[in-house]
Amino acid sequence: MICFNEKNKTFHLTGKRFSYIFYVNAAGFLQNVHYGAKVEEGDIAYLIAHRAKSHAPNPDSMNCDMALNEMPSEFSPYGRGDYREPTAIVLRRDGARMSRLRYVSHKIFDGVPEVKGMPHARGGGRTLAVTLKDDCSSLETILHYTVWDESDVLVRNAEYVNAGKESVVLEKAYSFCCDLPEGDYSLLRLWGHWARERYPETVPLGHGVTRLQSLRGASSHQMNPFTALLAKDCAEEHGECYGVQLIYSGSFALTAEKSPVDTVRLQGGIQDIGFSMQLGGGETFVTPQAMLTYSDEGTGGMSRSIHDFIREQIVRPDCVYRRRPILVNNWEATYFDFDNEKLFAIIDEAARLGIDTFVLDDGWFGKRNDDRSGLGDWFVNENKLQGGLKTVIDRCKKNGLKFGLWFEPEMISEDSDLYRAHPDLAIKKEGVKPVCGRHQLVLDFTRKEIVDHVFGVVSKVLRENDISYVKWDMNRNITEVYSAALPPEKQGEFMHRYILGVYDLAERLTAAFPHVFFEGCAGGGGRFDAGSLYYFPQFWTSDDTDAYERTKIQWGTSYAYPLSAMSCHVSVCPNHQTQRSTPFETRGVIASLGATGYELDLSKMSQEDKEKTKAQIAAYKEIDELVLKGDLYRLSNPFENNYFCEMLVSKDKNKAYVAGERAHGCPCDYDKTLRLYGLDEKKIYFIRELDITASGKALCTAGLNFPRLPDFGGWVWHVEEVH
Ligand code: DGJ
């Protein structure tokens, strides 16, 4: 709900459990008064009157203007008395950079504002659009706020309009700015690396600027475009916190600035380093949306609100709750070294084990027998696959399996027919030897004709073959940020234009082939963000499939993304990434906490493991609805405890699934209490594996003991209401 109080010029936005309140002060600046627990309309009137007195800047008085530096602002300009980080910087033709934006007007309307060419919240809700005007340049900024009655997520973005005739240059154009009152906050971030994505790290927020960012042209393995500010008492299931994440997959920045008076400015959007955007007279630039989530039920409550929002508003509605295919992928089974016979053996076995889909990974096209060649040549390598894709697809069909195929659409190998014919398609600058990553270059997706070309060749493969699943990979980041097709004054737009090219291709492919399920991948989880999830309902979480490492990666990822978005596979032991051996059962348990699948040579499995696989698949089909729709409770943190444990509870609280792993043998740690969460206190539940019947209240307060297990032992409990 959004209300505007004409008398004190206050905007009151509410979601399910939060209020976001700001007002237009006497000088026309937007001042935030409250972002937190829901209050009634009018409850805050006293505070506004109080603030209006103490924060009444007189725009004609030098000293009072400096009060801007202390005010909780909704948009922070540059060079006019607020010395904190600005939300935007605008450069005028005469070289001046200074601005101060004041309220002009506002509109309140149903639905989500248009964010053309970028992923965004899909609809419903109510939007407030506030127009501010710069008193130093022709810049106008429209701040958008969208809220939903049933959600604790507030979506914001900013639209920059050059209302004059002369062009201006945006040197920084963030999506939002939110000033929180003084507090002793901690900052949660998800940092990482290849094979170790989204490790959570919570640090006290010190004074000055804390900056999370990517300069890579992708949201990155290294830092996810998500952060949360946690109030002093915030824990997993109690206390206040604010989550922020971008619906964006390119280079980004998120900053938290703690002022000398302990207030905190949270803002972010498109990475400003290397960015500039020229706006001609009358031109507009729309920034990516940011999701702001308030929780007074700790980080667990925050994650559940985010998960619901991503499922309801971001993921393709036709796929989000659709039962996911249980697949086998040949990557770790064969790498590049396969032929018809090797694939047929996997396919035949997959059918016997109850797997739905066979996915053919890298190496089926061009002359690609290792990672040095072939990218861009999207036609089948018949020397490797005699009879082409058709023979593999026919084999799948004969076995009742569906077929999926790997592409890396954004890339080109120097050793490829495409590159030999059109070396100009790659991102590079004449006279500068391009930096190679994984022996490959990146196609210049800022150029529409290149995106059109890729759309054409990928579409041809999808049209001519019966393909139900695509794995869209991306294995290197961008260097030599430059497009030969852009004029000098537009080179600063390169990174943003690149990701718009990626979105354009994803939009067109998903629209042209609605029956195809697209999985995202980026050398593991290097572009796992809310922007990607708009096109790819699930994303390859990490190349690290080790069942112990995965507890940490999946735990960290779950702060900002639902389990249904995480692809999780059972692979062989010793694990290819860590050389660790874990029991087959445990690998299945951990892979069940997401979109499950297999990543090994099924034909080489022991009979015993084959029987276990059949059982795992049957067991997964019993709980996959909880993975798709359930509420997640993180019970035992593998970064802090010897046990990892997560729990999924159905929305009606009739059913739950507890899954966990014990890392190492450790004397008596199983005597510790494991409290369940999220059950209905009044209901009686039966835990199948323990033969225990108890009330939800008892299970969530007195709890249970952890199970006694050997090293890397996994377990599950099925919890069901007794009628
Ligand atoms: C990186 C991905 O994460 C892997 O799953 C696999 O598809 C390889 N690329 C193929 O090159």
Summarize the model shown.
The protein has 723 residues and is an alpha+beta fold. The protein is built from 15 helices and 38 strands.
**Major sheet size, sense and barrel closure:** 10 strands, antiparallel
Unreliable parts? none
Structural class: alpha+beta
Number of β-strand runs: 38
List the total number of helices. Answer: 15
Mean pLDDT: 96
Measured by DSSP, the beta-strand proportion falls in 25-35%
Helix content: 10-25%
Give structural notes.
By secondary structure, this protein is an alpha+beta fold. It is 22% helix and 31% strand. It is globular. The chain binds (2R,3S,4R,5S)-2-(hydroxymethyl)piperidine-3,4,5-triol. (2R,3S,4R,5S)-2-(hydroxymethyl)piperidine-3,4,5-triol binds next to loops.
List keywords for this structure.
globular, alpha+beta, binds (2R,3S,4R,5S)-2-(hydroxymethyl)piperidine-3,4,5-triol, 10-stranded antiparallel sheet, 22% helix, 723 residues
Helices and strands, with pairings:
Blueprint: E1 2-5, E2 10-14, E3 18-24, E4 30-37, H1 45-54, H2 62-65, E5 88-91, E6 101-110, E7 126-134, E8 139-147, E9 153-162, E10 168-180, E11 186-191, E12 199-204, E13 208-214, E14 223-230, E15 241-246, E16 252-258, E17 264-270, E18 277-279, E19 284-286, E20 290-295, H3 298-314, H4 317-320, E21 327-329, H5 331-334, H6 340-353, E22 357-360, H7 388-398, E23 402-407, E24 411-413, H8 417-421, E25 440-442, H9 448-464, E26 469-472, H10 494-512, E27 517-520, H11 530-535, E28 538-540, H12 549-557, E29 566-571, H13 584-591, E30 595-599, H14 607-629, E31 631-636, E32 643-649, E33 655-662, E34 673-674, E35 684-687, E36 692-695, H15 696-701, E37 704-705, E38 713-721
Parallel strand pairs: 21-22, 21-30, 22-23, 23-26, 26-27, 27-28, 28-29, 29-30
Antiparallel strand pairs: 1-2, 2-3, 3-4, 5-10, 6-7, 7-8, 8-9, 9-19, 9-20, 10-17, 10-18, 11-12, 11-14, 13-16, 14-15, 15-20, 16-17, 24-25, 31-32, 32-33, 33-38, 34-37, 35-36, 35-38
Helix pairs in contact: 6-7, 9-10, 13-14
Bound molecules: (2R,3S,4R,5S)-2-(hydroxymethyl)piperidine-3,4,5-triol.
Residues 331, 361-362, 406, 473, 475, 521, 523-524, 540, 543 line the site of (2R,3S,4R,5S)-2-(hydroxymethyl)piperidine-3,4,5-triol.
